[in-house]
Design a protein that fits this description.
The protein has three helices and five strands, in the order E-H-E-E-H-E-E-H. With about 100 residues, it is α+β, with helices and mostly antiparallel strands. It has one domain: Alpha-Beta Plaits. The protein has a five-stranded antiparallel sheet.
């Protein structure tokens, strides 16, 4: 059976960080909150450095836990930073349209 995906739109607040820094910070936060979290579906599918926005893909049952982990992230790339969740959508196209504005 096909996995049901959700896309979490977020905005990065703080000094510049790359894709790897953001994923490491989220993974670390998930590890401290729930070591048994299944990261196979977790992927940063979109990251725009200039607008400081991005989209994170996860499985539909993981949305609540992932949002909590993202909200509790206080350091990214060794610097003070945070992630503000803009919203959740079921498709990539709708997430970009609703939360990230015109591309």
């Amino acid at each position: 059976m096909r996995q049901r995906r959700r896309y979490i739109a977020f905005e990065f607040i703080g000094s510049g960080a790359g894709k790897g820094d953001i994923m490491r910070a989220i993974s670390h936060s998930l590890l401290t909150h729930n070591p048994a979290f299944d990261r196979r579906m977790l992927k940063l599918v979109f990251h725009d450095v200039s607008s400081r926005q991005g989209l994170l893909r996860c499985e539909y049952r993981q949305v609540g836990e992932l949002k909590a982990a993202m909200a509790s992230t206080k350091k990214i790339g060794g610097r003070e930073a945070s992630l503000v969740i803009l919203g959740v959508s079921g498709t990539l196209k709708a997430a970009k349209r609703k939360f990230l504005g015109p591309a």
